[in-house]
Amino acid sequence: VGVDITISEVEAKLEQLNGSKSGGPDNLHPRILKELAHEIASPLAQIFNESLNSGVVPFDWRIANIVPIFKKGKKSDPGNYRPVSLTSVVCKVLEKFLKEKVVKDIEVNGNWDKLQHGFTKGRSCQTNLISFFEKVTDFLDKGNAVDLIYLDFSKAFDTVPHEELLVKLEKMGINMKIGRWIRNWLKGRLQRVILKDELSGWREVTSG
């Protein structure tokens, strides 16, 4: 099954870019892409479709600059910094299309968990609380006791194994070409840390 992205769709996504955000290692700033949305929409649509249909992901789309943002505590403690990953803005535009298509595939196949509130359109912390209180009050009204266990996994996002993620996506029935593209997008990813004017060496990313 093909995956086609139109010129008008690309132009609309480019116009939605936040011009004040930072660019990635390719030095293509979002403000430039936004200002030239009409002019570059056609070649970008061609590049996006070729990448999706061939499964080839350019190297510049698989590298990231990591900028440590200080949170609080001792500045000498690396754990007190939040790493912000700056990747290619061009690739981020394509990623937005893929996210929409992946979510649609999951919804159509009925694989979206009804208890999922995070990262779900139309749902939030508030809807989660409402659902939670409804269940608790229902149990209490029936004379049942309610025990709660809260779990917070440390570095949960950063430790997701890529292979397990790909297996999960395949089971959820996403488009085969998108699945292949995501696999290649995750393969050979590199990142480096930027601190002031200093650059670290490149390190491979295998999780997160």
UniProtKB/TrEMBL annotation:
It comes from the Eukaryota. Signal peptide: none annotated. Residues 50-208 form the Reverse transcriptase domain. Coiled coil: none annotated. InterPro entries: DNA/RNA_pol_sf, RT_dom. PANTHER family: REVERSE TRANSCRIPTASE DOMAIN-CONTAINING PROTEIN. This is Reverse transcriptase domain-containing protein.
